[in-house]
Write a structure and sequence with these properties.
The chain contains no helices and 9 strands. It is mainly beta. It comes from Thryothorus ludovicianus (Carolina wren). This is FCRL2 protein. It holds the Pfam family Ig_3.
Length: 114
């Protein structure tokens, strides 16, 4: 289900019996689809522990335990407001000394952010 599936629903069917013939409808039912807030955001690092040799590759993965989508991701380095990427993973090729920092992943579904 998506949020846009909220609404009033009823079923309608053709009845053909000895007593009556024609279309009959059920009473309407209101359905409200609610988004699940984002929670359980965790960061996975490859290589494990984030210890990487100069010139090697570092891959950060943002994982979400619960939350309805669509999900959008934003990667940030400590001390900077600029986004480093918008995917669920951030890959740093040929890391240098300047890449040493704390990294953070923010996840949003339009209703909540974690």
């Amino acid at each position: 289900l998506q949020l846009h599936h909220s609404g009033r629903y009823r079923c309608r069917g053709w009845v053909d019996s000895e007593v009556s013939q024609g279309w009959e409808e059920s009473a309407p039912v209101t359905v409200t689809v609610q988004g699940v807030p984002i929670s359980g955001v965790s960061l996975r690092v490859q290589p494990p522990g984030g210890q990487v040799a100069l010139g090697d590759r570092l891959v950060l993965s943002c994982e979400v335990a619960t939350g309805t989508g669509p999900l959008s991701f934003s990667w940030h380095r400590e001390g900077s407001e600029a986004s480093l990427g918008t995917g669920s993973t951030l890959e740093l090729q040929h890391v240098g000394y300047s890449d040493s920092s704390h990294y953070q992943c923010q996840v949003s579904n339009g209703d909540s952010m974690a």
